[in-house]
């Protein structure tokens, strides 16, 4: 990745559902440590929506956040929820655009779980030149295709076209939250030449040093696209 190594590579990170900047910083600490000294800077932002008190936020914690909701009474989200209801997506997209404007540019996007699902949607917008900011790659950890009907319609617009943004997909073979088959189909069905890393763990980003060569292989291959 000689071109990218000339400057600090900045990556905008979108946490998962029921997470926030601080919790994702802790959960991704091992992953970021494995990539230490690689001139990478990870910028993590909070989703703009607090999950209301209920089953998904029983203690009414203020830092229990979501990028959008797929159900209501009270508002909730599930990756498995087939729904015509969506609330909060537009505000989240605006926050990401505002972050590009105020803190960018960013070289790449990284998302975990619901955050990865949002990154996939942004990649579709970018494919159609409907996202106004540039980024060179996407990293999707425990990603999935949103089953909300308006999001499904975005995927349907591709009509067999593949997103050509270089993408890394990190998939846990024992993920109990997002089935690994869904993460694989998101990668293979919608992205051109996806770079897939599988691990034996669950709903997490592997942080063992043994994964470092695979991570670096993805960054090195970015030169092939430039």
From TrEMBL:
Keyword hit for Hydrolase: yes
Keyword Hydrolase in annotation: yes
Pfam families cross-referenced by the UniProt entry: FSH1
Location of the Serine hydrolase domain: 5-213
UniProt keyword annotations, A-Z: Hydrolase
InterPro entries: AB_hydrolase_fold, FSH-like_dom, LovG
Family: Belongs to the LovG family.
Identification of the protein by name: Ovarian cancer-associated protein 2
Originating organism: Dermatophagoides pteronyssinus (European house dust mite)
């Amino acid at each position: 990745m000689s071109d990218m190594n000339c400057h600090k590579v900045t990556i905008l990170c979108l946490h998962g559902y029921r997470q926030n900047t601080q919790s994702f910083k802790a959960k991704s600490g091992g992953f970021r440590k494995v990539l230490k000294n690689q001139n990478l800077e990870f910028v993590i932002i909070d989703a703009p929506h607090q999950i209301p008190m209920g089953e998904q936020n029983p203690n009414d914690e203020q830092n229990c956040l979501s990028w959008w909701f797929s159900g209501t009474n009270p508002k909730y989200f599930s990756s498995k929820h087939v729904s015509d209801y969506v609330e909060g997506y537009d505000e989240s997209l605006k926050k990401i655009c505002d972050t590009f404007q105020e803190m960018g540019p960013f070289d790449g996007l990284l998302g975990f779980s619901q955050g990865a699902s949002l990154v996939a949607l942004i990649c579709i917008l970018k494919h159609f030149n409907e996202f106004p900011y540039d980024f060179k790659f996407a990293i999707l950890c425990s990603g999935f295709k949103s089953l909300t009907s308006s999001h499904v319609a975005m995927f349907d617009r591709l009509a067999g076209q593949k997103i050509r943004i270089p993408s890394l997909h990190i998939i846990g073979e024992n993920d109990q939250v997002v089935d690994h088959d869904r993460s694989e189909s998101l990668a293979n069905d919608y992205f051109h030449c996806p770079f897939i890393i599988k691990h034996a763990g669950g709903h997490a980003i592997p942080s063992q040093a043994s994964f470092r060569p695979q991570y670096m292989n993805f960054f090195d291959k970015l030169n092939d696209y430039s």
